[in-house]
Amino acid sequence: MGGLSASRRASNTLIYIILTLMCIIWIIPFVCILFESFRVETTMQVGYVIPKQFGFDNYINLFKETDFPIWYRNTFIMGLFVSVIQTMFVLMMSYTLSRLRFKGRKGLMNFMLVMGMFPGFLSMIILYRVLSRMGMTGEHSVIGLILVYTASSGMGYYVSKGFFDTIPRSLDEAARVDGATRAQVFGRIIMPLSKPIVIYTVLCAFMGPWGDFMFAKYIAHGSSKGMNVAVGIQYLIDKDNMRAAHYTQFCAAGVLVAIPITILFMCLQKYYVEGVTGGSVKG
Q: Rounded to the nearest 5 degrees, what angle is found at the Cα of 47, between the Cα atoms of 33 and 50?
């Protein structure tokens, strides 16, 4: 037993050391970006990390010299609308596939599974043509991107359906016996028990517009008023636009973009993990 305990302690120690090293390696780029955002002696990219002069000039100039407030506003609006609409679609689809049995259910699930395997950029050209004819590109791309982000969101039912499968069906049956409708069962019985998966779905939906670059850039089509933060801050260091001197502002923008997502994730991390683990069962 003593040898087993010593072996287990050594194994745990090795695992902790490896995890600590991985965390250090993972966090180093973020620390470097944070230092760069406070460097004021030059706005160009340099070969050292610790600034010689610290200041908030990059943050101030980011709001004065660029359209960062517009990019931030666009992304926040998209994140807000997408998180609400996408969460509604995903949860309703997941509950339907978890509880109801109807003809074509298996075929529908398989169809959505297969369709989800195709990368989204395959439809970029046709989506751009459709949105362009509807006047939802360029400076009006925010509405177009919201439509694109939410249009097929019901196909991402997998995790939520797995979570609903863990909730006993007897609760639904008891409520139905008492005269509750399907909508009442879903809203008053199931939803209060599904807080982890709701928060998980909201977080995933909210983070989508913040990290999307390729399709958002394609739809914005060079219009600064229609960019999200990912496209906008990339524009700051795009050499084709002669903006390479704004490298430190790019770092400051990256810090400001990461702050709300980090705070939101840290505050809701418990429910996020519960949603992932609760929805990982086979359904």
A: 50
Question: Residue 202's closest CA among 147, 134, 156?
Answer: 156
Mapped onto helix, strand or coil, the DSSP state of residue 171 is: helix
Share of the chain above pLDDT 70, in %: 90
> For residue 238, which of 255, 217, 258 has the smallest C-alpha distance?
217
Q: In 3-state terms, what secondary structure has residue 164?
A: helix
Distance of alpha carbon 147 from alpha carbon 168, whole angstroms: 35
**278 or 249: whose pLDDT is higher?**
249
Q: What pLDDT does 85 receive?
A: 92
Q: How far apart are CA 78 and CA 75, in angstroms?
A: 5
CATH number among 3.30.420.10, 3.90.76.10, 3.20.20.210, 1.10.3720.10, domain 67-273: 1.10.3720.10
* DSSP assignment letter at 53: S
DSSP 8-state symbol, 155: G
Do residues 82 and 208 touch, judged by C-beta distance below 8 A?
yes
Vertex 202, ends 200 and 206: CA angle to 5°?
120
Tokens for 102, please give them. Answer: 């109807």
**Which residue type sits at 143?**
I
Q: Whole-model pTM?
A: 0.79
Residue 121 is classified by DSSP as: G
